[in-house]
Design brief:
Length: 466
């Protein structure tokens, strides 16, 4: 039975890999298949992967073996103690989340097949969508921090490319670039946490970091200080990926992508990946009260922020994205309080609900328009009295999204940009001087000309100022 579970686990990850490889090779060779064929290739991989994940779940229930480890070996070794170790972990956390990924990716792919019909870049969309599915599955079943980082990067790359999917317009490209910058901060925090994990326990295996046992009964054996440092870095990584404070500003910018990508990324799966990471390392929160308090505070602050900002948004995608942000904040607070099963059930249920709302949004707007045309007027709204001064300030604060864009631009982006511009200008000026190139507006330095006379035995030096 153990061998069967191992093969089912390999099939779960192999299906999105094969699907991505097929679509990638076909597009690389310049062949453009029909829309129906592209959709069927993706759906076949999703269905087989879903059946494999259900098979693992059934086998775990029948055998009572609630953890299946598949070791694929060490691929890269860097002395003294750094290596790239691939290990797949199927347990009570990864299997439900993996099944959720396949269900929602298959559902949204069916919606996208009709929504993107005859859209230029249809095949490119499904290629990036397949990469996203592969990244999510890899991150969900990762047994080492290196495997998690590989899936994490695939999710970030595909997300940004789909935000800028309509690359003939300036706004999607610009907003995709802004999201990529924030993702770099998240990725840097995760990478630093991986390095510290290797330095601390000698490898990136989660069992070495979190202690022996099956989730959620793991007990971390590291010191509270180490748990606070590594957990704090992972909390920053989760905040960047899930748009928690102060990284909330990229969430409305991500709505530039097609509606199917918005549904799967920022309503269902990608926005929950940070919360999933915190669930995976949740034993660290029991080792450090400061880390747990930070997670609870960050989650509650993000929930309040998402509620107030979402109340004043004028487009339905932004309203749903900030509603998702509110629920993700509550999930993070539940993880900090130690309610692991409640947080997992909350995550699974909220992802399904938000997917339905995102996919229903376009037709809902059409239904509202039909109703208003039939009535001959706008739909009535609840009347309210004149706003107070505080309500006006609060509305303005929410409409400007807490001024986070301005704060990050003035306090982080502009100083870094000015610093790098200074370094670039200094390097250019230094290289020009070495090459004898005079900047505009500056006097040229003296030039030494050597003239060799036919009668003089020694060269004669003459200084000429040009």
């Amino acid at each position: 039975m153990t061998d069967i579970l191992h093969w089912l686990g390999i099939a779960t990850v192999a299906c999105p890999i094969i699907t991505t490889a097929i679509l990638g090779v076909v597009l690389f060779l310049g062949y453009t298949p029909g829309e129906r064929l592209t959709h069927r290739i993706l759906q076949l991989g999703v269905v087989v992967g879903l059946l494999a994940s259900f098979g693992i779940f059934t086998g775990m229930q029948l055998t009572g073996q609630y953890e299946v480890l598949i070791d694929l070996g060490v691929w890269v070794t860097i002395p003294p103690n750094y290596h790239f170790h691939i290990e797949l972990l199927f347990d009570r956390l990864s299997v439900p989340f993996c099944a959720l990924i396949f269900v929602l990716c298959g559902t949204i792919a069916s919606f996208a097949h009709r929504y993107m019909h005859r859209e230029r870049g249809y095949h490119r969309f499904f290629m990036l969508y397949s990469i996203f599915t592969l990244g999510m599955v890899t991150a969900a079943v990762a047994g080492t921090v290196e495997t998690l980082y590989a899936g994490w990067e695939l999710v970030g790359l595909s997300s940004v490319l789909l935000i800028g999917f309509f690359n003939d317009r300036p706004a999607p490209v610009r907003n995709g670039y802004r999201v990529w910058v924030i993702y770099r901060i998240s990725d840097a925090a995760l990478l630093l946490a991986a390095v510290l994990t290797h330095r601390l326990v000698g490898e990136g295996d989660f069992h070495k970091l979190l202690g022996e046992g099956v989730w959620p009964n793991e007990i971390a054996a590291i010191s509270p200080l180490n748990a606070a440092v590594i957990g704090g870095l992972l909390l920053v990584a989760a905040a960047g990926k899930s748009a928690l404070l102060p990284f909330c500003v990229w969430l409305p910018r991500a709505m530039e992508g097609p509606t199917p990508s918005s549904a799967v990324f920022y309503g269902a799966l990608s926005v929950h990946l940070g919360a999933f990471l915190l669930l995976r390392v949740s034993p660290l929160f029991e080792r450090s009260d400061y880390l747990a308090a930070a997670a609870v505070s960050l989650g509650l602050a993000t929930a309040v922020y998402g509620y107030f900002v979402g109340r004043v948004q004028t487009d339905i995608k932004s309203v749903l994205s900030f509603a998702s942000l509110t629920q993700v904040g509550i999930i993070v607070a539940e993880i900090g309080l130690g309610f692991r099963y409640i947080a997992l059930v909350h995550l699974l249920g909220h992802a399904c609900l938000r997917t339905l709302q995102f996919l229903r949004a376009p037709s809902l707007l059409l239904d509202y328009k039909i109703m208003e045309n039939a009535l001959g007027e706008k739909l009535p709204r609840n009347p309210s009295g004149p706003p107070t001064r505080f309500q006006v300030w609060l509305y303005r604060f929410a409409l400007e999204r807490g001024y986070l864009d301005e704060i990050l631009d003035a306090g982080v982006a502009k100083p870094f940009a000015a610093f790098f511009r200074f370094l670039t200008a200094w390097e250019t000026r230094s290289m020009n001087r070495l090459n004898g190139i005079v900047p505009t507006g500056e006097a040229a330095p003296p030039v030494v000309v050597v003239r060799v006379s036919e009668h003089a035995p020694e060269p004669q030096l003459e200084e000429a100022i040009s």
